[in-house]
Amino acid sequence: MELQLAAPCHPRLLTSTLRANAVPASTTAPSTSCSSSADESTLKPRPRLPRRSPVPRLKPSPARLASLCSAIEQRAAAGLHREALDLFRLARARAPFTPLPAPTYLALVAVAEALREPSEAAAVAWHMEGSGFEMDVYACNRVLGMYLACRMLAEAQQVFEGMPERSAVTWGIMMGGMVDRGRPRAALALFRELWAEAGAGAGSRTVVVAIRAATTAGSLQAGRQLHCCVTKMDACDDGNQYLGCALLDMYSKCGRVDEARWVFNGMLPQQRNLVAWNSMLAAYALHGCNEEALELYNDMCVSGIGMDQFTFSTMLGVFSRLGLLEHAKQAHAGLIQRGVPLDVVGNTALVDLYCKWGRIEDARSVFERMPKRNLISWNALIAGYGYHGMGDQAIEMFDRLIAEGIAPNHVTFLAVLNACRFSGLVEEGKKIFQFMTQNQRVKPRAMHYACAIELFGREGLLDEAYLMIRRAPLTPTANMWGGLLTASRIHKNMHLAKLAAEQLLAMEPEKINSYVVLLNLYISSGRQDDAHKKIYSRLDALMKEIKEIGYVAEEDVFLPDIHPDEQKISRVYHSERLAIAFGLISTSSHTSLRITQSHRLCGDCHEQVIPDSVMLTQG
Description:
The chain is mainly alpha-helical. It has 33 helices and no strands. α3 (62-77) runs antiparallel to α4 (81-94). It starts with 10 loop residues before the first helix and ends with a helix. PPR repeats lie at residues 273-307, 308-342, 343-373, 374-408. GO terms for molecular function: RNA binding; zinc ion binding. Belongs to the PPR family. PCMP-H subfamily.
């Protein structure tokens, strides 16, 4: 017999049920003594447990609640955000509808904004609203900023629209949050609404946010309209340096360096702070105006404005492109004399500069003295070793990077594979590529396959290079076929060279490099005559075919610098016709030929041969 358990019942419910089902012994006679004793044991009431009095909830005294609020504010000011939230939960549990002081709420808002957790932000805002706390404009602005920091745009929009009074700071916070959340055009729409209400009283800081929105959106038209608003406000004439820097940055990132320099020149002397100089230098460096950047840097040094880490990092790129290594060393020495330590960006830029100019020992020295390194720092040094043929040192740094627990990215793998390629380290390159294929975070891309193909090709392993193209889990790119074509040319493998050239011509028919490489391969392999015979033979066949469809050569064409007796013979073998013939013999029958440069030097070639050739299919 299977035992079945019923759901448990409450003791009181069970006792009442048993009492209801109990029958007095006088009305019903027991059938047997055994059954009577069983019924008595079943109907026997359970002893009643003593009733416990409920524990009364202690209402926190004002002194204890004030102590909790003070502790919350102290924890928040000290950066102990989690502890502050724990105390807030305790205060909320003991006094769920008791409003806290305004400084406590503002401290909690700052904590939620720092942690950027929507759940905590919602809890703080719910308690402020549920307790009946009266919020002024400042408190609403803080809650608005908290919502935007936590990416709660819907809640922020609700708070913004529900505010009975908005200040210029309110508009600026809402617009800035829209820009930070990737909605710059929504921020510009808000500014248009504000400008319609307040006009020139919108406030200069709000205009700065609007200019930043135009910069993020890449809208030069909106930026120029905002420049007009600045002019109407006369904001640039009152020494406001932020507006000038914002306009300068906007014009620079929108590609108008000349207008950025015009804004810079129009700034008052007190407005040209270090940020303005750095912005203009960065604009020149961004658009490749290296000479102008160097001239402006010299003016900055004469003006007495001391450079900082950003200035140094910007100018290092300029010095590198101009080959001014001594200028870079002088600038570095100037920073050391002024006691300005370089950050990781400046040190990495210095490592990259020394690597590009062959000062590998100096680059390694700067790298070892860096107090803090990032992955870009490692990549710069590994790439520097690779470019200068020091593959063993590059692999050593790569192994050290792995040993220190730093995860390499696709740039790191490309740098070390290039180092193996330049140094001919085939086995090491195979191991690194295999390690990359087993990496769960970084998988080989087309550029890594192209680098490995060139590595195998340079060492004569053409079969392995070709197999890598065939086995790649992606569509072969022009760089991959180009690496095989170059390797085939070096090792004079006509079959693979022709195959790679056909693939390249199908992908990039407008580039003549593949034609030149293939022709040079014929010449270097001693088959120049064969190449010439094939080209001229195919051209003769082509001319015969187009004559059959109605081509008639022009007889009155005069070409300069050619004897009249040679005019008729040379015209048959003009370069345009030879190019078409070479394209026909060096590509497969299904490959299309595209004419990208057709100079009207010979009317017969331009108007007759080329159009007729296009009509023909390749045999």
